[in-house]
TrEMBL record:
Gene3D superfamilies: RutC-like. This is RidA family protein. It holds the Pfam family Ribonuc_L-PSP. CDD domains: YjgF_YER057c_UK114_family (cd00448). It comes from the Bacteria. It comes from Rhodosalinus halophilus. Signal peptide: none annotated.
């Protein structure tokens, strides 16, 4: 299974914002990950009221889901980032968590979506992903 990131040189530099414009994957198995939020194993909200902390926890949860399937961030072909009451300033709180999550991996395609609310009022962010399994 291969996943090739596509970032045309004649488009803006999406990598600076933590995502690729597109990801091409070869036929194979796909893992559709549910949206991950800032819950720990015991249903405690990690970082209540703190968007950056919740982003880190949601991404840690996503990493655990991927690992269970024998995958990692390098296998992700698309993520969607849902942020409650989004404003442009909130990018600065979440992008560092995304950068840490991706590490040396070229980021996958990401769509950032501002929403009014998530499943529980304590949740400020939810991140879902699709991965091409190795």
């Amino acid at each position: 299974m291969t996943a090739t990131r596509r970032n045309p040189g004649d488009l803006y530099d999406s990598l600076a914002y933590g995502f690729s414009h597109a990801v091409e994957s070869a036929p194979g198995r796909l893992l559709h990950c549910a949206g991950q939020v800032a819950w720990d194993k015991d249903y405690n909200v990690v970082g209540e009221g703190d968007l950056a902390a919740q982003a880190r926890q949601a991404l840690a949860n996503l990493r655990a889901v991927l690992a269970e399937a024998g995958a990692g961030p390098e296998h992700i072909v698309r993520i969607r980032t849902y942020v409650v009451d989004h404003t442009p300033e909130k990018l600065g709180l979440v992008v560092p968590a995304l950068a840490d999550f991706w590490g040396d991996v070229t980021p996958a395609a990401n769509t950032w979506i501002g929403v009014q609310a998530l499943a529980l009022p304590e949740f400020l962010i939810e991140i879902e992903a699709t991965a091409a399994l190795p």
